[in-house]
Amino acid sequence: MALVHAGCRSMLTSGLAVSPASGMQGALKPRPSSFIGIKSFLAGPQGWTQRQPHMRPSRLPERRPISIRAATVSSNDFKTGLNIVVDGAPYRVQEFLHVKPGKGSAFVRSKLKNYITNNTVEKTFRAGESVEAAEVDKRTKQYTYNDGDQLVFMDMETYEEIRVTKENVGDMNKWLKEGSECEVVIWNGRVLAVELPSSVVLKVTDTDPGVRGDTAQGGSKPCTVETGGTLQVPLFVNIGDDIIIDTKAGSYISRAKDKK
After folding, report:
1. Which protein family is it in (predicted)?
2. Residue 157, burial from CB neighbour count under 10 angstroms (0-12, 13-18, 19+)
3. What's the CA dihedral at 97, 82, 172, 243 to 10 degrees?
4. pLDDT tens string 40-77
5. Which class does domain 136-195 fall in?
6. Within a 10 A sphere around the Cβ of 54, how many other Cβ atoms?
7. What stretches of 188-219 adopt beta strand conformation (E)?
8. What is the pTM of this model?
9. pLDDT for 72-105, tens place per residue?
């Protein structure tokens, strides 16, 4: 026990020094570094760990919403086939005319076709007016089969199937043959229309027998083709003939073997 007291007294004494400035010989002044070391020793193991200063967490910057502006086009740059958005619906420019009157401001008169309703409207824009562009995507698909009120198309690269209602195809449905390739028009993930090639070759399945000596100028008769569509054909056309049909007009062009 005496040894312990002696050791402590020795440690305390080693941490003290005589201060000559005090004028009192023998006055003791603690050495700061040694005194801190003694306090840490007396405090036990918990005193040996240096405490870290209190750190405030850094404040994260506020996230502001990102606004994405739709692409626009000037009415001065209108052209046939341009896709635009009017009153929230996609339209296709069919006709346009730049007008510069003698008095007043110039304007653009246009005829637009609604992709959704297939209706055609006339609309006038100010010259240089900004109009939202419609991001209409056309993808080549192959028509595979008919499933009730829906037509099934397939992407020949990914083999992904897409279903389209017959309403979206419209009158083009009667010229649609399995295995034929079409352009599927998509806007905002929605199928708007299906565009067939300008002409198709189909086989005649029903018509009145042709009369010998009939010519292309000798009249016409009704005809049914393999897809169920009907049209007028020349009198010399017979069942089993392959004929070329204008899909937009729904009219006869020629027999397939007659076209060079």
Report:
1. Belongs to the elongation factor P family.
2. exposed
3. 80
4. 545 555 544 455 555 555 565 565 554 445 689 999 99
5. mainly beta
6. 5
7. 190-195, 199-207
8. 0.58
9. 999 999 999 899 999 999 999 999 999 999 888 9
